[in-house]
Amino acid sequence: MDYKSLLINFMSGTGNSFRAAAWMTKMGKQRGIRSELYPIARCREESDVDKGSGELLGVVFPTHGFTAPWHVIRYALRLPLGRGKHAFVVATRAGSRIASIPFPGMEGTAGYLIALILILKGYSVRGVMGLDMPSNWIALHWGLNSVNSGFIIDRAKAKADAFINSILEGKKGFRGIVPLILGLMLSPVSLGYLIIGRFFLSKLFFASGDCTGCGLCAESCPVKAIKMVGNNKPRPYWTFACESCMRCMGYCPNQAVEVSHPFAVILYFLATLPVSVYILNELGESAPMGPYLFVVSALLNYSYILFVFFIANLVLFLLIQIPLLNKLCTYTTLTHIYRRYHEPDTKLGDMLKKQV
Ligand SMILES: Cc1cc2nc3c(=O)[nH]c(=O)nc-3n(C[C@H](O)[C@H](O)[C@H](O)COP(=O)(O)O)c2cc1C
Ligand code: SF4
Ligand code: SF4
User: Fold this and answer.
1) Strand-pair partners of 37
2) Are 338 and 241 in contact (CB under 8 A)?
3) Ligand 3 within 6 A of CB of 71
4) Domain match, 47 and 109 both
5) CATH of the domain at 240
6) Angle of CA points 104, 131, 64, to nearest 5°
7) Measured in angstroms, how far is the CA atom of residue 18 from the centroid of ligand 1?
8) pLDDT per position as a tens digit, 105-122
9) Domain count, the chain
10) Domain extent for 77
11) Is any ligand 2 atom within 6 A of the Cβ of residue 211?
């Protein structure tokens, strides 16, 4: 198969998916194919999507909650019709290595969900793959050390090169059927993550006293989810738009972005109070019956949870302005001692612009 052009649209928090996409574009260039990299975050208008009229479109992004991030799903839904154009999908996932034993991540439905949307849009999908890169979920665990991440990255490069070469040679490659089956079994978890989980995670971020108010996190957030609040000493405020990609946490020059674990426990407790039961009981006989009861109760619960997240985060934001309470939040969370992670060769600026 002689492709004349390759375009890869990527989403990346801490540089893993960017790096994988960059390896693939480099391989395209080595084969004499015009190859471009374009961040999904910059695809704001439909005309921005799929820039470059590439004959082969690649979509590369991280796995979140065993599926594709909402940001990528929305991008795929907004793509113009494929009209038979070739495409491939790569979901990077959380590889790790403990005592020299490598452990794979689990992309679940991430790759095939985006592939399905592409097929429904008229693309001819040539390949799907999950690719282990160092786990970047540094809100949950410390970042991998340079030896372990280097090991995982080297293996990923070999795998990514082999995959793109076979696609460019016209072969098809559909990997990750077992993760897909597991992902389908875990789809309630993925749905829960997409609808509620990501809002929950975004509401746990705060800036410690080490924050200088430089604004880098707000400028470089791929979905512009951070607002700098305050005139004298501006502080980042995380809005609901946050995709929990970990970029702000991984790249803050002062390691000032923290995730409050004690606050997570409080928020979980508050969000799971049976408020819908209380309201429906109060309504007595005028409460809806039968199937309506389920819908009304779900709507009440969902609205209540979002309300709790919103109010609680506002309270957290106000409290951490008080230096003593900021210190309390900072020293009671594990992220304060966690090593940060971003893909070692990827600078923030690399992910913000189009690369030809
Ligand atoms: C909020 C969040 C959820 C994640 N969920 C999963 C998951 O379900 N399965 C998995 O294998 N990796 C998961 N990961 C790990 C990332 O997908 C993986 O490290 C990826 O390579 C990060 O790429 P990026 O640096 O381009 O964002 C998750 C990471 C984050 C931050
Ligand atoms: S959290 Fe970090 S990147 Fe964001 S404003 Fe503070 S110092 Fe700058
Ligand atoms: S606020 Fe931070 S974690 Fe959330 S989307 Fe922006 S850069 Fe990613």
Assistant:
1) 8, 355
2) no
3) no
4) yes
5) 3.30.70.20
6) 80
7) 13
8) 999 999 999 999 999 999
9) 2
10) 5-188
11) yes
